[in-house]
Amino acid sequence: MVLIAFLVAVAVRVSVGSATVSMTMAAGIIASMPMVAGLSQLQLAALTIAIAAGGTAFSHVNDSGFWLSKSLFEVDEKTNLKTWTVMETIVGLVGAVGATIAWFIVS
């Protein structure tokens, strides 16, 4: 379930670019799944972490944070893709691992 939540958020993030939109949309999609109704509060928290991690990963040129970091660090797009996008992806993957560990602990 955590992997599904993460992948839905990643898919929306890559296609739309906005972290806010991807997290909100993924939360709506996951909330509509019938199996979510029977989850505990701690399991829902793990799903929330997975959605946030997926919404953070794979930042690219459609993301306002990408352009903000580019201007703040005064780098070109290529350098920002090599640094900001990679860093955001690592943050997202670490968050997904954390959400998975939390899921198994509370389940």
TrEMBL record:
One of its GO terms (cellular component) is plasma membrane. One of its GO terms (molecular function) is gluconate transmembrane transporter activity. The lineage of its organism: Bacteria, Bacillati, Bacillota, Clostridia, Lachnospirales. The keyword DNA damage does not apply. The keyword Membrane applies. Coiled coil: none annotated. It comes from [Ruminococcus] torques L2-14. PANTHER family: GNT FAMILY GLUCONATE TRANSPORTER, INNER MEMBRANE PERMEASE YGBN. This is H+/gluconate symporter and related permeases. The chain crosses the membrane at residues 42-62, 83-106. Keywords: Membrane, Transmembrane, Transmembrane helix. Pfam families: GntP_permease.
